[in-house]
Sequence to fold (384 residues):
Amino acid sequence: MLTAPAHMPDLPMWAAIAVTALCIFGALLALVGSIGLKTLKTMYERLHAPTMASTLAMATIVAAMIIYFSFAEGRLTLKPLLIAIFLTVTTPVTMTLLARASIYRDRVEGREGVPKDDM
Amino acid sequence: MTPAAIVYWGTGFAQVVLALSMLVSAWRILIGPRAQDRVLGLDTLYLNAMLLILVHCIRMSLTAYFEAALILAIIGFTSTVALAKFLMRGEVIE
Amino acid sequence: MIARISQRVFQQILPHPILSVALFMVWMLMSSPAGTGHATIALIVALLVPQVMRALEPDRVRVRSPLAIIRLLWRLFLDVLASNWNTARIVLGYRKRTRKAGFVNIQLECSNRYALACLAIIVTSTPGTTWVQYDRYSRVLLLHVLDLRDEDDWKAILHDRYESLLMEIFP
Fold:
């Protein structure tokens, strides 16, 4: 029989199941993203994989935190939304910069399969 | 099983999955093949570590870890931007 | 006359009202559970930081039609779910033979920089499309698409789904 340590607060059954399901779903989605980072063939295809972790996986885990701490502290806790806002704003910056860095390097080296800089 | 036990062991499983995901992205940092792949792997590693800390927050039922996750997100963003900038401006060809 | 003067005073105190409101909300979230003291500091920050922004002289943000914002958010929510599902299936080996990835050039119509920033967030946060490069003079956007199908017209997709709504929001 699995038991919980004493620091865990009491919360309703549906909330416990929702928190657990959201956490596990987010973790599995992040794992799929990392597997994509491992298995996809080119650099530009690999760029798509981690965005799964930074959008839906992050959103489900943040939702789980909001549900859990709202019950644990007995009031609506929206603090985890900060992480969601921050990641939503910063992910485009990192991804675009990485894509541009790699396309720049590919162009300088004259590799195949990269569009020319004719803009 | 009590609701607290479900949350405790379920988040424990999620932590194992996230640690596995960190391992896979660390593998990408190791094998490369080029510098931008390693930077992308590092970005993913930071992201997964942040998610791991968030789940740890729930498991320990402590909001104190939340700031750690926020700082990790900020450091990950800054380091990835700096490295991408370096790839564009620093040494051009390996 | 009085209306114009009061408008001037309002612009002096609150040069960027949306920024002030956003700063106040984020500060309150950051320091929750927030008491009166936190609210005071949040108010000071929300009043002072936009004055600093005045030195940078960004374009004024004008937002219209809240209905369009809600429609955009709802559509984005559905698309994030759908594209995550599609990307996860591709990663796990579905249609490995026939799928091909590639670059797409798209001629955009809107030139408002806030609309473009929102479009960049939308494009990046739906896995399967990545914003690579945008040229401000020719307004050509270079996208990388993970699952490139021949029958899809990406310009029409991007325009019908998001760009028209964004042009409604940021006139």
In short: Chain A touches chain B through 65 residues (CB under 8 Å). Residues 8 and 72 of chain A are 8 Å apart (CA to CA).
